[in-house]
């Protein structure tokens, strides 16, 4: 069994930051679950252009607010405590922080391996190990 307290991850190798996001990676590929599991903080007002070409991601908001724009349809969906979105078609999107920092629980399939950050297209590169 794996039991982890987020407080023990802050400031370690498992905390990764990029422009407009901080990710605390509670489960990684090496933990052997077949998916990774993260807490992600998106500050108020942030704007991220993302396109997970090589991963599927599901995201569940547990605090704060923001929105996601689906670049295939032009639709924007509000995000707040209780809303989940799943990028089941590797959907290109813009994630926007709202008026309060968003706290998101995210899972990636296949799992991220460690300290991935987005490339110029907003993707994490595939794991080739
Ligand atoms: C929601 C999203 O994709 N934010 C970017 C960071 C990512 N969730 C991660 O690595 O935790």
Would you kindly provide a written description of the structure presented here, covering whatever features stand out?
The model has no long low-confidence stretch (mean pLDDT 97). This protein has 129 residues and is mainly β. A hairpin with a 2-residue loop joins β1 and β2. The chain has strands at 15-18, 21-27, 36-42, 47-50, 56-63, 65-70, 76-80, 84-86, 93-97, 102-109. The strands form 2 sheets. It has a 6-stranded antiparallel β-sheet, with no helix packed on it. The protein binds (2~{S})-4-acetamido-2-azanyl-butanoic acid (9YT). The site of (2~{S})-4-acetamido-2-azanyl-butanoic acid has 10 residues, from β2, β3, β5 and β10. (2~{S})-4-acetamido-2-azanyl-butanoic acid binds at residues 21, 23, 38, 40, 50, 57, 59, 95, 104, 106.
Question: Which SSEs are present, and which pair or pack?
Answer:
Layout (H helix, E strand, L loop, with lengths): L14 E4 L2 E7 L8 E7 L4 E4 L5 E8 L1 E6 L5 E5 L3 E3 L6 E5 L4 E8 L20
Antiparallel strand pairs: 1-2, 2-3, 3-10, 4-9, 5-8, 5-10, 6-7, 6-9
Bound molecules: (2~{S})-4-acetamido-2-azanyl-butanoic acid.
Organism: Halospina denitrificans
Catalytic activity: (2S)-4-acetamido-2-aminobutanoate = L-ectoine + H2O
EC number: 4.2.1.108
> What structural category arises from helix and sheet content?
mainly beta
CATH topology of the domain at 18-95: Jelly Rolls
Calculate the terminal CA-CA distance, rounded to whole Å.
25 Å
The CATH homologous superfamily of the domain at 18-95 is called Jelly Rolls
Shape: globular
Main-sheet strand order equals: 1-2-3-10-5-8
Q: Write down the CATH class of the domain at 18-95.
A: Mainly Beta
Which strand-content bin applies to the residues? 35-45%
The assigned CATH architecture of the domain at 18-95 is: Sandwich
Catalytic activity: (2S)-4-acetamido-2-aminobutanoate = L-ectoine + H2O
Protein name: L-ectoine synthase
Enzyme class: lyase
EC number: 4.2.1.108
């Amino acid at each position: 069994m794996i039991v982890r307290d987020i407080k023990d991850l802050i400031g370690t190798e498992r905390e990764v930051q990029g422009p407009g996001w901080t990710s605390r990676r509670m489960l990684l590929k090496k933990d052997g679950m077949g998916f990774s599991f993260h807490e992600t903080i998106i500050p108020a007002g942030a704007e991220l252009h993302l396109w997970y070409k090589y991963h599927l991601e599901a995201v569940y908001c547990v605090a704060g607010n923001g929105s996601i724009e689906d670049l295939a349809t032009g639709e924007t969906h509000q995000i707040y405590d209780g809303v989940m979105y799943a990028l089941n078609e590797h959907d290109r999107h813009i994630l926007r922080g709202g008026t309060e920092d968003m706290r998101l629980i995210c899972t990636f399939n296949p799992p991220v391996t460690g300290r991935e950050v987005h490339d110029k297209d907003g993707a994490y590169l595939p794991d080739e190990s």
